[in-house]
Amino acid sequence: MTSGDDNRPPDTENGAPPLSGELSIQVAIPDPDQKQRQSSRVPVKFDAGLRPRGGASAVSVHILDLSVHGFRIDSQLDLAVGTDVWLRLPGLEPCHAKVAWTEGYVAGCKFERALHSAVLDMIISRMKG
To answer: Which helix (H) or strand (E) is 108 found in, with range?
Structure first.
């Protein structure tokens, strides 16, 4: 050893000091019960019209939450996953959506074309006022 190296551990075969330590890698495991969302939901409570494909007229449903990408409803309709529906929101033309999931008479639907965030804000402010 040269001067000034008195505290250095002895050299290994290749001349580098030995290293000791612990390597830890944390991997996030997704919760299978948590559904993936494209956007955050806004809890709401209002009625709207929903017409399933082939339905003659819209049926009144309760909107439970709303986002730019979809909505959750409570209704008396027996909807199947993949069913095309048209939601009539106050002041808008009917919006085309597909049923993404169901649990009894509660269903989550995804808009075929996302709402603009300003439109979502307008709907929510109308429902609150």
So the answer is: strand 106-111
